[in-house]
Amino acid sequence: MKTYHKIPHWNKGIFGQPVIAFDKLDGSNMRFEWSKKRGFHKFGTRTQMITEHAPIYGEGVDMFMEKYSEDLDRIFTDLKDYKHCRKMTVYCEFVGPNSFAGFHDPEDDQDVILFDVDKFQHGILPPKVLLEHFGHLHLPEIVYEGDLTTEFIDSIRNNTDLKEGVVAKGSSKRKGKYYSWMVKIKTNMWLSQVKKDLGQSALLEDLDGNLSLYED
Question: Which residues contact 160 (CB under 8 A, 6 or more apart)?
Fold first, then answer.
C-alpha cells in the first residue's frame, strides 16, 4: 500500500502560485486502500500495515470504516473519474484533543479526518479536485485561499490560534496534466512546544535540520 510522502517545508514552495491552505492536524497519519473487487481491505499507519485489532490505531480503522467507507465506496464506484481505477488510497489523520507530535492521550475521544486521496497511477488529487469530489465529507478546515506569499507564511508562523500550522496545496500543469504539490507551514508556538517537551534534537528532526525555519 502506498505510503504518504513527506511534505516539504514552506521554503520549498512555488511562491506566487495559488494555494488552498488546510489546517494541519496534529495527530498520526493513517492510510486505507480500496479496490474495485474488495472495497477497503488494507489498513496502515505511515510506517506499518495494521488490522482493526492493533493497539491504539485499530480504533482508527473502525472509525474510518464507520465514518467514510460507505460514502467513499459510492464515489469510487459511481463517479466517472474513478470508475476504471483499480485502486485508491485514502489518507486520514488519527487525532484527539490532546494529541501532540504523534503522541496520543489514551483518555481522549479520538477521531479520523480525511485529508488526501491518491488515485492509482495518477498520484495525490489536486486540492480543487479533492474539494469538488470529497468536500461534502469531513475534511480539515480551510484556513486560506490565495497566493503563496511571504506575508501569508509569516501570518501562519506567528499565528496563536492554529494548533500546528497549515498544509498549503497547489497544482501545476506539465505536459497538459495537472499535478498536485504542497508545503507545510508550522507555527513558532508549536515548534517551541516541541523544543520544550521533546528537546532540541526533535526540533531539528522536524525542521529537517534547518533552524532558519523557526523563530525562537
Answer: 187, 189
Q: CATH number, domain at 99?
A: 3.30.470.30
SS (HEC) of 103-162 = ECCCCCCCEEEEEEEEECCCEECCHHHHHHHHCCCCCCCEEEEEECCHHHHHHHHCCCCC
At 64 the pLDDT is 98
> Does 214 reside within a domain?
no
Using alpha carbons, list the distances in angstroms from residue 63 to 35, 66, 95: 19, 5, 11
Cell of 168: 498549503
75 falls within a domain: yes
Instruction: Please report whether residue 77 resides in a domain.
Output: yes
Number of domains in the chain: 1
What tens digit of pLDDT does each residue of 193-212 get? 999 999 999 999 999 999 99
Residues of the chain with pLDDT under 70: 175-176
Would you give the distance in Å from CA 131 to the centre of its chain? Answer: 14
For 204, other C-beta atoms within 10 Å of its C-beta total 15
The residue range of the domain holding 49 is 16-205
Q: Cα–Cα distance between 34 and 38 in angstroms, integer?
A: 7
In a domain, residue 10? The reply is: no
